Amino acid sequence: MKLAVLASGNGSNLQAIIDGTEKGEIDARVVLVISDKKDAYALERARKHRIEACYLDPKKYAGREDYDRAVISLIKERDVGLVILAGYMRLLSPVFISAFPGRIMNIHPSLLPSFPGLEGVGQALRYGVKVSGCTVHFVDENLDTGPVILQEAVPVYDNDTEESLHQRIHDVEHRLYPKAIQLFVKGKISLEGRKCIIHER
Ligand code: GRF
Q1: What is the pTM of this model?
Q2: What pLDDT, in 10s, does the model give residues 37-67?
Q3: Average per-residue pLDDT in the chain?
């Protein structure tokens, strides 16, 4: 299966996914990385692995849908089976969601449905929860509301800063996201309503 990854920033999750494909832990390959930020380190990571890296400047498009249409056509030209959001900071339009039904995944740094949207880590810390974590989910029309695929808890310590907690969450993300992608690639995820059933064997 071919994978496309959309990323706006550092791309440490992208790196974990590329590493997973190179180690044979994910039976797929990343064929395209797209970013809305020219300087996203994610693009550099892609180039280092000889993966096609595209920067699309949002300012060159009339609006969100026009931009998404350009992204959609880049992905469709490459026969991609799964679209992966990895720190992609743009909201996807319904046009995008309906172009890849059931084939878009995201990772979020909290235990959804708690603390969706921006600053999931900061929100959890400010709220004072003792346990947070991360969630891999399918993407639907709303923000961070799609069916949950995998979740893992991470403890919150009294002396945590946003950085220290995010680091601990990142470490789990780098394990959880490749695992969810491999389950998808192997056809081991089915949906009953909004509930993901994982067929481990
Ligand atoms: C991750 O914490 C992810 O949960 C969130 O954005 C962050 C991206 O980090 N969606 P990176 O760019 O993969 O390092």
Answers
A1: 0.97
A2: 999 999 999 999 999 999 999 999 999 999 9
A3: 97
Q: Which residue has the least CA distance to atom 5 on ligand 1?
A: 87
Is 108 one of the catalytic residues?
yes
Atom of ligand 1 nearest to the CA of 108: 4
Long-range pairs of 91-94 with CB within 8 A, sequence gap ≥ 24: 91/64, 91/143, 92/68, 92/139, 93/64, 93/65, 93/68, 94/141
Q: Pick the residue whose CA is nearest to atom 14 on ligand 1.
A: 12
Strand-strand pairing, 148-155 and 104-108: unpaired
pLDDT tens digits along 128-144: 999 999 999 999 999 99
Q: Which domains does the chain have, with CATH numbers?
A: 1-101 (3.40.50.170), 106-201 (3.40.50.170)
